[in-house]
């Protein structure tokens, strides 16, 4: 029996009492992945990206481990909810236009002490000031550096379109604006190198593209390390008591941690290890989050149909954004249908061994987004479900 076949047998036994669709987290794999992130971080604390987990109980589990510290949230409403729930170090990774949320933040000393907001434009400070209507609780601020690699005088750009702040001078100027402004305190810098951390460099069947990605990433790492260090020096000249410099992502943990200027690493997807993280040379994780769909039809030889399945991930539309049939091995989508909203036909010889009601296990393309489809994660240890915890959705929270 292969390792994957053994996992299927365990998961089927563990969830035999549960009707599909159902989602699980294999805690042994989850904890092993957490250990791997810490190993690659080389002693620097890891801040957990909540959008890649979307479950308070699992955020609490990983943050209880030595080496993990703080949450990186994705909306202001989520940040405030987590802070009210007892998370005392929440970095909002994206700028917000949530006026009601800023009014709430500025009016509550506990929230203001726990939450740090993201800024890359003085206009965002104006919005916060207008929202708090004279309330002067100090708002903690982090500046985001654009990490993109610019070539040929800026005519070629590689990287996500995030912050407009690219040069040390640009970041320092906004730092001075924050420092001069009453009611704000500059405490951090963040730089997410998505073109390094979030792009696989070993895509099966695409050796030329993979080689090009590796060359790009090597050049991008060198350029960013030098520029990030210069940015930190420039900002510390304005704010000597800067508390943190955050960088990284699951795919670049060890490289970012090697930079002296970086004080903490951000990661989250590496806990669940969705299918997009199969395409990396720098690490290997264990799939920890899976979902199962029930067989409801047997249309013919070599075909079964499961209920549901159309759970595409965000990003540019393509096959790599689709969940992948994982267990039993050897199933594939019908190219004329793909995964459907209500039903999904699956092809392959393993279909002939599946009965009505059997489970087919899938891996989602991206971490966290699976939790927008399920309200409960069943926690598997060995061949037993030892607990069931709500996702954000299960707690009635859909932040985006």
How many helices?
12
Strand content: 15-25%
Round the mean pLDDT to the nearest integer and report it. Answer: 93
Tell the overall outline: globular
What is the number of beta strands?
19
Oligomeric composition of the shown chains? single chain
Helical fraction equals: 25-40%
Largest sheet: 9 strands, mixed
Our measurement of the CA-to-CA distance between the termini, rounded to an integer number of angstroms, reads 42 Å
What class do helices, strands and sheet pairing give? alpha/beta
Rg of Cα set: 22 Å
Low-confidence stretches: none
Task: Tell me about this structure.
Strand 18 and strand 19 form a beta hairpin. The mean pLDDT is 93. This protein has 400 residues and is an alpha/beta fold. Helix 5 crosses helix 7 and helix 8 packs across helix 10. Strands 1, 12, 13, 14, 15, 16, 17, 18 and 19 form a nine-stranded mixed beta sheet that branches. Strands 2-3-4-5-6-9-10-11 form an eight-stranded parallel barrel, surrounded by five helices. Helix content is 32%, strand content 24%.
